[in-house]
Known about the structure:
CATH superfamily of the largest domain: Ribonuclease Z/Hydroxyacylglutathione hydrolase-like
Structural class: alpha/beta
Radius of gyration: 29 Å
Mean pLDDT: 91
Helix content: 25-40%
Number of domains: 3
Amino acid sequence: MIKPxxxxxxxxKQVTKPxxxxxxxxxGCGTFGMNMTCYIIDRKMIIVDAGSNFAxxxxxxxxxxxxxxxxxxxxxxxxxxxxxxxxxxxxxxxLPYFLKKRKSAIYASPWTVETIQRRFFEHNLDCPITPxxxxxxxxxxxxxVKFLKVGHSIxxxxxxxxRAAGNTIFHSGDFKFDSKDGSPPPSLQSLKDESIDxxxxxxxxxxxxxxxxxEDSVGEAFRNIIKSTNKNVFITSFSSNLFRFTLIGEICKSxxxxxxxxxxxxxxxxxxxxxxNLIQDTYFSDDAEASAKTSNSVILISGCQGEYRSALAxxxxxxxxxxxxxxxxxxxxxxxxxxxxEKNIVEIINKLKRLKAKVLTGKDAPxxxxxxxxxxxxxxxxxxxxxxxxxxxxxxxxxxxxxxQERHKGQKTLLIENGDLIEYDSKLAKINGTLKFDHAYIDxxxxxxxxxxxxLEKIQIAKKGVATLSGVVSPEQRQWIRGPSLQxxxxxxxxxxxxxxxxxxxxxxxxxxxGNRADPDFLIKxxxxxxxxxxxxxxxxxxxxxxxxxxx
Length: 552
């Protein structure tokens, strides 16, 4: 079925009905990351999550991508609140940019609140956030939202139970059961007697059978590796995985090994955990300089996705302030590669091996990493437990959404993608059209959002180079008062050619008859045409042309 496009706000008003529940994903459905879902009733809206996504290789000078905060969707409704399920960047990374455009209340679990506040400090934002303990409920008429504690690779991750217009919606967020017997956590077991109309479920690992191993299952593999070597062991993982880091800290303490930390985000998470009484020990030594003198330590180091400015990248480039790879040192990648980052990770690994390190990934030593997302077995168990009227896959590429849908044969499902407007009424869920929606691209240097056209212009400049022409012309005198000034950027530099072209532009003016100012625009066009054609012939391609010619 071809979905109609809702191009304008007026189209949206025509197809929506009063007191009806609508939901619309603007990220995370059909693409990894950038998770964001809008819930709308009678022009009142709550937004669940506001995430970012890693930039793709073609996005020159872009650090990450977010939904476009300038879109009318975020301006035309009474925005009651942002509801955040957990503190990973693909769920909170866009929040500062949205707050700058549209402030509203923010509700999140305590760990998530602390993490968001750190981001706000970096953006010089002062926006209050209301912490909600797992199990707590927020009432925002006509919505109420209950936070349900679930397992994930970060503290205080929550699913949501949303009640609105007589309907009950389960929004999973990112989750896993994290149990040895495959049973749901108590918070989800409590939903057994609920009448769920729609269940939206994470699809990240829907293509994997069975149950995701619990987080503490990595302990044995780490203990065996750390115990069996007298070399330094560098361990890189997602900086938010406090559970794994504290587990490694406990192992080091029991083995009498010193644990160091390299990476501000990991260190800050340990400090925050101590302040929130989530751990009773700092687990790591602050004496970083001493680490260079030992060969029998464990170092937690950030940069598992190959980020070029990370501590791991500096280690691989032999530029780290304190640490150096010595022959036989171990580097363990306790993480998965986020799609799009594979090339950067392979490059880092090759550099580490060049320094004589032994590198182990989850493929080499499967026990050193477990996912934070439910496998197919958990998804099927959850669906049977909830008995929802409709089951809707979210969070994943299209293939993951499809794999999730195929696990629920005999149950009513709806396959949706970013921008789809879903209407629910009288036990029927349907797609009422698709919104034309775009993204904003965060500039790597300024952190200012760019439009796609601006990113494409950067790409053209990078591929083709830039030729500039500037100067001041007198149409009456038929001469250059200043200039012509020519500059090549990213193009062959040839002084002889530039001198020849400058002379040609000067002669082109002299050849015109002097006198009145007739048709100065024609004169400018002639100069630009001559300049562009000569440059294109010289460099063998058409670069990006920029011209500024003033008339006096």
